[in-house]
Amino acid sequence: MNAPLNHPLPLLDLDVLRTFVAIAETGSFTTAANAVFRTPSAVSMQIKKLEDILGRSVFARDARSVTLTTDGEMLLGYARRLLSINREVVSKFIIPDIVGVVRLGSPDDYGERVLPHVLKRFAQSHPSIAVDVTIDQSVNLRRRMDDRALDITLLTNSYKTSALGAEVLLTEPIVWAGAKGGCAHLREPLPVSLWEEGCAWRAGALEALGREGRNYRIAYMSAHTAGQRAAIMSDLAVAPLPKSFLGNDMVELCPKDGMPDIGTYNLAMVVAPDASAPVKAVADHIRATFEVFRETGKF
After folding, report:
1. Model pTM?
2. Are residues 222 and 279 in the same domain?
3. Domain carrying residue 132
4. What is the mean pLDDT of the chain?
5. Residues in domain HTH lysR-type (predicted)?
6. Tens digits of per-residue pLDDT, 66-94?
7. Helices and strands, counts by H and E, the chain
8. For residue 7, is it within any domain?
9. How many domains does the chain have?
10. Please, how many CA atoms are within 13 Å of residue 272, restricted to the half-sphere of its CB?
11. What is the mean pLDDT of residues 146-150?
């Protein structure tokens, strides 16, 4: 029921709004509960409280999904603005005013898939720190770090190797990706889409094919994730990808499909030894992002 006009309007709890936004963005009460460090039952109670205050349903629920109602979509914009203003105000008093420029390197795959989310959230909490991004192959990024041209870099490494001074953020299986309903994996020789020399996924894939004695040909080569996806989606070739990179229009090809196991790879981070306060802030934010991913599977 809406509050009578002769009474003060109720105040919305920012903690409840944070939970509401988390559910809207993940589409799951359980995943959102992990992200806000609450139990699913506590999250449900928060949303019930919010709906009672507003007198409207903000989510439509069924057995498989959670979606925003029309009122929920309207609330989402307001909730994000309120949370953003709260972060800005609190940061002025609690978070030290760190100012500077951080030079960050990343491989193309994570630069496309992860960095936009990471940098957007970082800019909200540290508006006075500018982050300049360089996208390149891991071997070149390592060289840039050695030349002190970067302050931080992400690197992909084979499970058998690790970069000196690197901190492992994630270890994940590399799988063969094919088009859903495709037949590229049945062709002889096997058409494979690969990155250039120096890619950890390429090395693992070719080693696996050689171990199994599988004939193959490099049908498509690109240094960019978008190019690899194009080759897979058009069923021109199969390609090695981290398991979390598979889209809804792709399938994982297993030994039963005639494809050998590839193994795992590491995503690591290297931070300059004389890191400044802004560099340390970026590094801490990246660590926190991957901690959430390991727990929830979402960035």
Report:
1. 0.68
2. yes
3. 100-298
4. 87
5. 12-69
6. 999 999 999 998 998 898 888 778 777 77
7. 10, 11
8. no
9. 2
10. 24
11. 95
